[in-house]
Amino acid sequence: MFGVCKLCLEEKRLVDSHLLPAFLYRLCREPGAGTNPNPIALTAKIAISTSKQMKGYLLCRDCEHRFHVHGENWVARQVYNGTVFPLLDRLSSSSAASKTEELAIYDGNALGVETGTIAYFALSVLWRAAVRKWEMIDRERISVDLGEYEEAIRRFLLGGAFPAGVVVMTIVCTDEISRASFCSPSRKLGPRDEYSFFTRGLAFNIFIGSNLPEEVRMFCWASSPYKALFVASYEDKVFRAGARLRATARPLVKR
Prior knowledge:
alpha+beta
């Protein structure tokens, strides 16, 4: 299919691009689960085991490759793969800069963790959610509106400066439910423009706005000098979100 690539804005042959990378779907399959190894998709309307993935013609091959090289390839090697969780294992074997019963904070600079790569990955997913009408399994659409920041993020993804007014924070999750699943970006309720999603043990919080408080900006993985890595359980948040969906979703046969 020929068309205008949403990232480079050039007319080229487009490829079938994923909203969330294909490696996440592969990791959530269970080959030993009888005749149906497919993951379960859960929305407010339905719960179904399915092989369907959210994808569409969005990027040219060069820009798709850019996303792989600058974010997805590294993240794919760090998330929980069903056996090990390389990033969490790396942090667990290091000394935390600060630690309580519920939260540990690590110095990303001292550990040499590629926090900028993770920030690139997070913004690439959020930007994709905003520039196309993505349809979920129940045909409802994902709603992400970045307003004036959409263009600034696009330029960053092409190699430009990290956009002012954007903060990316990430939690490395210790709980099993977060490590075994993933979800698409959604806006969090609250006074600020904040979006969140998680991918097999990495939970992303992205704040957007011109007047973000210092206590938020100081922990940005891309623009802050601190590069703080948070390690905590995300189970309560995932469980509450899942409970809300399960309360209204009706089970369907597999697809």
